[in-house]
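Exam revision sheet. Question 4 asks you to relate a sequence to its structure. Input first:
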Amino acid sequence: MAKESTTIDVGEPSTVTKNTSHVVVDEKKKKGFVAAAAGGGYKRGLAIFDFLLRLAAIGITIGASSVMFTAEETLPFFTQFLQFQAGYDDFPTFQFFVIAIAIVASYLVLSLPFSIVTIVRPLAVAPRLILLISDTVVLTLTTAAAAAAASIVYLAHNGNANTNWLPICQQFGDFCQTASTAVVAASISVVFFVLLIVISAIALKRH
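Answer key, structure tokens:
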């Protein structure tokens, strides 16, 4: 008695599942690309704003250092052996201010290439992180120089009765005005650095 063989027809694998999986993967890639493009767009805008702030800060810091460097006044009345004169180099704090703000201006110039890189590659993390750390360090130096000079300017304007320090701005008005202008400019640069740090922190934020 011959045995009957049973054949089961499995059929061709269904291509519907394969096509569906490909569509899902393509949609995910497309969404990821759109999200990356959107993120890169606003980060490029932040990078451009960062670059413009650095250019403005360069002008302000160079101006502050130059103005303080030229702060000098000689009173019109003097004798052969006595001359009343005031200059930035008579105050070690003002000397520190000139040197420190000049260093800050030099740093800002050197930071421009990194800022340009963040414009070209807005999603790059390394240059933005370098700027964030460097700006924080330089902000400390700028704040220290501006605060130290501001304390001397305050004493020059108001004096100190407890220590019998007399205000000199009544006699050296132009000198005090020049020094005050330099301190105000340095204070504005401090605000700029705070904005630069905030921009870098936002640009480093991951979605």
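Marking note for examiners. The beta strands are 72-74, 85-87.
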